[in-house]
Structure prediction request, 330 residues.
Amino acid sequence: MVDTMRAAVRDRWGAPEDVVRIDRVPRPEPEPDQVLISVRAVSINRSDYYAVAAPMLLLRPMQGGFRKPKSPLLGGDFSGVVEAVGDDVGGFAPGDEVFGSRTGAFAEYAAARMLAHKPANVSFEQAAAVPGGALTALQALRDHGGLQKGQRVLVNGASGAVGPYAVQIAKALGAGRVTAVCSTRNVDQTRGLGAHRVIDYTQEDFTAAGESYDLIVDVAGATPWRKLSRVLPSDATLVIVGSQANANRLIGPLGHVARTAVAARLSRRKVAVFVAKFNRPDLELLRELLASGQMRPVVERVYPFEQIAEALRVMGEGHARAKLVVTVQA
Prediction:
């Protein structure tokens, strides 16, 4: 077996088209509790762009330092075929089709612990689009939003990597009414995901429509608290998932997140800011939702591996309608 592989790497911070390249690196050897995956497809998350461009200067030390990252490897979400199984691993065998997440997955092979079997009714490209976005949506709604059956949910920012999953998972968890907010070009896509109402924010201000919600999942991160508070009763919950990038070179979009969280707490509203945690039970739940058809991945575009820098650049622009996927191996 070959001991090297192709992988997307970068040795310094910068624009993806300037610093990301495909190179040969050592192929990973699975530890006893890991599975070696022949990667078929990967998907791009906002965090992957940040790991290349590093626009937030204060966060660079967490990834190695101000001058360069600690590891050249990139990526997280993947799908593929099991190549080999560690001695301590059960439930997987060579040839199994799987999806999951592993740091450094933008490569031909990945040694991973966090994975689940891919349902037969989704492609490798669709499966690769699931882990980060769907896991974030699930934990926002269930764990941090405390969603109860029959509640009124609003997803602010129903396109992109997280929003489409939030709409679908809210319905699957029993929300009584799901309202989705997006731009004009995403209205039809969002309506097709089953939202009870879709609001085009270029035509209507959802905070001035006279409706209130039990739970708001704020993915867009562009609405100030003074407006959000209009539609959040005292017993409602706001879960902040994302925020638009801005010109602040020190903390980037984190400023808006912090201001909104503080204002919500001062007004005695329930507010949650979190980072999704990967775990096997949640991946299994996502697998069940995929297999049952209650959740379907929305992929905007599929790139060849040679164009992964371009996919990262497009993600960085902040206008992706859905997931961006890269095919690694046919």
Remarks:
- The mean pLDDT is 92.
- The longest helix spans residues 131-144.
